[in-house]
Amino acid sequence: MHRSSFAKSLADLKSRGVRLTPQRQMILRYLKETHEHPTAEQIYHQVSQEFASISMATVYNTLHRLTELGVIRELSYGDMSSRYDGNDSEHAHLVCEVCGKVADVPCPPIERFTSPELFAHGYAVGSYRLEFYGHCPDCQQSGAGQRDSELN
Amino acid sequence: MHRSSFAKSLADLKSRGVRLTPQRQMILRYLKETHEHPTAEQIYHQVSQEFASISMATVYNTLHRLTELGVIRELSYGDMSSRYDGNDSEHAHLVCEVCGKVADVPCPPIERFTSPELFAHGYAVGSYRLEFYGHCPDCQQSGAGQRDSELN
DNA sequence: ATACATGCAAAGTATTTGCAATAAA
DNA sequence: TTTATTGCAAATACTTTGCATGTAT
Question: Which of A80, A123, A127, A152 to mutate to test binding with chain B, by most B CBs within 10 Å of its CB?
Fold first, then answer.
């Protein structure tokens, strides 16, 4: 038996002296338990059900703080709101350009696609992002495809 | 001698029946000639010098159209405005998280990092994006680092 | 000639901020 | 008790839209 990813992150944050308000715990738990890559809006909606008075400002505050602390990831896109990912292990994403759904895919270790030219620029690289864009199975069959709003 | 990337794209668009207004040509030329990955604002500013009456709406319209046509790429980020890339060949980016500067890096062919799991999801993948985040040489030495606004 | 692009100003959306009230440590 | 976080409302930043005018083909 191993502790949930949520419990692990929580302990980690506590040991780092991060203040753990109920709001933060709920947001973190939700992100660690879902695989949905929700938007701030969806997180707000979800967490509101248990904690009615929470505000969007707190949701955004918390998401930034957790991202900065490295326990979640922010995925930003040009034409839709950012999505948040509780899976902090190394992986890539499959993004549906029609409905916005995001799926996780395993990803080769970073060394696989780093080149000497990369280092030649002298950047101190801390992280990377690999994403594939396309149409998900649902949106391929339903000719027109559902909008970003409907499912995902 | 080979035709400039701009001339090539222009001919390509013409043959595809795309209406080539002076505004569009200027924006496209600028993007094909710079390696700066400018924002919409920067493009507007630059093109305004030759074509004073151009509007932001036209800049955005054009950027979307050109992206859709596949001759440029849009790079969106969470905390700053999108940047546009006239280099339509396969490559990755090095992004400075301090000043926002974006550099091109060669990138292995897509097959190098696709896995069976990727296909198992059934997505029809059309494109991908690979980005490395870190601190550029300039921002590493200048301890505090310049802000997104200053240089890049 | 005509469909499509432009430019303006107004609207929209996502996200951020200031600040007084509140609660975690 | 102290200092960071919350929640509200107002503000900002970026991007999009409606519509009358203009223009590339």
Answer: A123
